[in-house]
Amino acid sequence: MLALMPLTTPLSSANAASGGAASAAGRASTHWTDEVVETIQSEFSDIPDTAQIVRLLLRLTLAALLGGVLGIEREHAGKAAGVRTHMLVSLGAALFVLVPQQGGMPMPDMSRVLQGVIAGIGFLGAGAILKLKDEEQVHGLTTAAGIWMTAAIGVACGLGREATAVVSTLLALAVLTLVPHVTHRLTRRAPDAEAEAAPPDGRPNDASERIRSSRD
After folding, report:
1. How far apart, in whole angstroms, are the C-alpha atoms of residue 118 and residue 150?
2. Taking the model in full, what pTM does it have?
3. Could you tell me the sign of the dihedral formed by the alpha carbons of 38, 42, 48, 52, in that order?
4. Distance of alpha carbon 196 from its chain centroid, rounded?
5. What is the CA radius of gyration of the chain?
6. Rounded CA gap, 92 and 86, in Å?
């Protein structure tokens, strides 16, 4: 029995050493995995609670929907800047002001972000304007103004001014849909009034002159 003890002792030592190495390797692997998980969690920790998630989704979704409302009108009018363009402009403008606000940027410094957004939208709107050979043939001004208005609505949503954004969208939609009908009726009535005011011999009288001067 005493002769067998030296033979079993090295085997048990080797098993213990291999077991210790495997345990150390397992701990190192677990530590590396924990670091990866913690890093991923920290990268997605900009939305700390449920209230912040709801607030983020509400502002961005409302910005996209309100921009889409104006985009539907523009697409119905046959313009190139349609639903997707207006939705992306409003959503991007909201995100530009929402992210600095989440980062704790004070409101006075937010003006620099707004200046950048306004300048960028100006370049985008300029691309929608098409000038033909004639000096009076300029197309796309209303679309460019609509894109600019859409960005302002997105900024209002990003800053948490949802009611202001909704009211502004309704007013902009009224301008795009109702004002053309009003101006069309006024331009149709003006030639008729001028024709009635003209004398039979074709020479303008005082009434027709007043109508023409008021139109100019």
Report:
1. 11
2. 0.68
3. negative
4. 51
5. 35
6. 10
